[in-house]
Specification:
Elements lengths: L11 E5 L10 H8 L4 E3 L10 H6 L9 H13 L6 E5 L1 H11 L5 E5 L12 H11 L8 E2 L3 H7 L6 H11 L3 E2 L1 H8 L20 E6 L7 H10 L7 E6 L12 H14 L3
Parallel strand pairs: 1-2, 1-3, 3-4, 4-7, 7-8
Antiparallel strand pairs: 5-6
Helix pairs in contact: 1-10, 3-4, 5-6
């Protein structure tokens, strides 16, 4: 039987956004990767509004979803595809892609400045300060919470000029469920935490974890700690630090640097 390798179509990439971000923030990435021959999908979290405006108008639609229900929501969509996709996630999306990859639901995964998985217990002051607006009030658990501009500026956009920070805040930010943030905060005390990831799966696809040098909410220390959790697995796990970049690195003017690096890394994995 003859196999023609030159007509092989590339895999699908499924993008997963994080807290306070609309799935439309992936649009530049989708154009970039479809230009390189990939199929692209960016389904939202359960309850997500079709547009930023609709979402802001109905914030409680996303309230009270936790890590497991969101990951299961994506798992069902992946199971409907012909083959498992490449997973790319930013922030909480980075935690979710690790969860799905550990379940064998990804051909590979890129976790961009990912929210901490269980076992990453370090708590840098900047991460605490960035998440305090939500965690500071236990009554927020079942609610949907928006970031104020100063909170966004500190947590996401500290490495950006003021004008760009404000523009991103106005264009991209949406209310998000508080529950996932509480689940991360309590993971050390909860052996069955929903933030647990199967880091010892030897048969999973390759994983790239990134860090932004100036990231406040997921400082490099946390991304590096996550990377080290995979040390015992023989599956490929790589780490990349982006210098001078904050948590907005996947959505700000420098997104292309991260996308191009992710593409090169995927190509090195033969994907």
């Amino acid at each position: 039987m003859l196999h023609s390798h030159n007509i092989m179509t590339k895999k699908t990439i499924l993008f997963i956004h994080g807290l306070w971000m609309h799935s439309n923030t992936w649009e530049p990435w989708m154009k970039f990767f479809s230009g390189h021959g990939y199929q692209v999908l960016n389904p939202g979290w359960p309850g997500d509004g079709e547009t930023v405006e609709l979402w802001r108008a109905n914030p409680q639609a996303v309230a009270n979803y936790g890590v497991k229900s969101i990951a299961d929501h994506y798992a069902r969509q992946i199971e409907a595809l012909k083959e498992v996709p490449i997973l790319v996630g930013h922030s909480f999306g980075g935690l979710l892609v690790q969860n799905l990859l550990g379940r064998g639901l990804g051909a590979a995964a890129v976790a961009i400045d990912p929210a901490p998985i269980q076992g990453v217990w370090q708590l840098p002051l900047s991460a605490l300060r960035a998440s305090l607006p939500v965690l500071g009030n236990p009554f927020n658990l079942k609610k949907s919470i928006s970031l104020t501009y100063p909170q966004f500026r500190y947590a996401f956009a500290n490495a950006l000029p003021e004008t760009e920070a404000r523009e991103l805040y106005d264009r991209c930010t949406v209310p998000s469920p508080a529950r996932p943030l509480f689940q991360v905060a309590m993971a050390t005390l909860n052996p069955n935490s929903e933030t647990r990831v199967n880091t010892s799966n030897e048969n999973r696809g390759p994983l790239l974890i990134t860090a932004g040098e100036k990231d406040h909410i997921v400082p490099p220390l946390l991304s590096m700690a996550a990377f080290k959790k995979y040390a015992k697995s023989k599956a490929v796990t790589d780490f990349k630090l982006f210098e001078g970049r904050g948590h907005s690195l996947a959505i700000d003017h420098g997104w292309n640097e991260v996308a191009a690096y992710s593409l090169q890394w995927l190509n090195r994995q033969g994907l």
